[in-house]
Amino acid sequence: MAFHGQLFIGGEWTAGSGGTTFETVDPATGEILGTAVEATEADVDAAVEAAGRAFTDPAWRTMTPAARGRLLWRIADLVEENAAELGELESKDQGQAVGFARGSMGGAAEMLRYYAGWCTKITGTVSPVSVPGMLHYTRREPIGVCALITPWNFPLAIAVWKLAPALATGNTVILKPAEQTPLTTTRLVELCAEAGVPGGVVNLLTGGPDVGRRLVEHEGVHKVSFTGSTEVGREIVRDSADTLKRVSLELGGKAPSIVMKDADIDAAVTGNLLGGLVNSGQACAAYSRFYVDSSRVDEFTEKLAGAMSGMTVGPGTSPDTQLGPLVSAEHLQKVESYVERGREQGAEVVVGGRRPGGDLASGFFFEPTLFRGVDHSMQIAQDEIFGPVLPVISYDDPSDLVARANDTPYGLVASVWTSDVAQGHRLAADIRAGEVFVNTLPALDPAAPWGGFKASGWGREMAADAIDAYTETKGVWVNIGQ
């Protein structure tokens, strides 16, 4: 049965006020999976109003921390119980390998449980003020109505990263998924309602960039949490300025992976293959520019090329697929254009570099592509490609590595491969990135903060940092006399 999505406002499913829909497409085939509602300005107003009412409603406002924790745990149970269905939806709508997508549903359930535990542990402090006769203490209070705007690369997982701490701290939310991938977020909202979330606490608006822009500009929205491109992040900062709302941004990346002369090359090849091609390279944390010691670069490149040439490209729903399609025809054209620019600027394609034909010709597929002879200044080494394109850059002088690793606008993730643990620590300290992985793949855990430096964003998600991101600190002064 084809998907026919609706908006969810104030605890009710609705076709919206405009009567306009858009299509969501299977990137493996180009076939239409279904339609979703294009929310109007009136729909945005209605969702904001519903979230505002719910924020002050005693059913939510006075819910005990323990009850909120049980509610989040119930949502986690439902996500886990429906992991197979959610994984298949994610695979069809986004293109992820279905096994990977199902695994991410387990991670989403654990994220919800982590913040369920936080509900009873959000505390204030008693301050040792020097004003005679005064007691001063602080309270951590929810911000209010939060617009959670999510990307198309990990639709459900990133929605949960934002939703779980927002609800744990007592806020109300409006989820706005990317227009390319609305399926799993819609299902997540259904599960929230099934779990017993009061009406208006979780709302859903679908549609294109205009819907997100209206939320950002809306006076009734008190916080925006956005994951996506740096360009759109800058627009959000500008658009939110008039209302001075709180803003969290997790933006783009161009992660350097440094392979030192003493590195275990086989481990570095495996780690960079998996770290660079996760979700077909459609990840802001993907290892996307490799700096390899000149004495090891040929060995590294040959082994990496061999591993890449043996990968199975195919639909995400196929159990044998290692590399699924890109999310859309538009994005496929963007990735292809970067490969052509790499050739034009003098880099050599070792493997890949084209769209596969045959049974895959109707989908948005691109072969895993490896470049060598890449100069640090080339566009494929500087720009976020967001696809399965890996440039290898040779270096002779290790003293230049930190400067080169830091020489992009981004600072989300970096990777270091070395047998010298002390050297790994030194590089991790000097590289300007929010996350540095030494001799390992990119990893996530609810207890570890996530976010970037420079143009990779503002603030942190996960861990205790997300509690800070969704609360305000209030100071209370009480005259208790001498």
TrEMBL record:
The keyword Oxidoreductase applies. Keywords: Oxidoreductase. Residues 13-475 form the Aldehyde dehydrogenase domain. The active site is at residue 250. GO terms for molecular function: oxidoreductase activity, acting on the aldehyde or oxo group of donors, NAD or NADP as acceptor. InterPro entries: Ald_DH/histidinol_DH, Ald_DH_C, Ald_DH_CS_CYS, Ald_DH_CS_GLU, Ald_DH_N, Aldehyde_DH_dom. Belongs to the aldehyde dehydrogenase family. This is Aldehyde dehydrogenase.
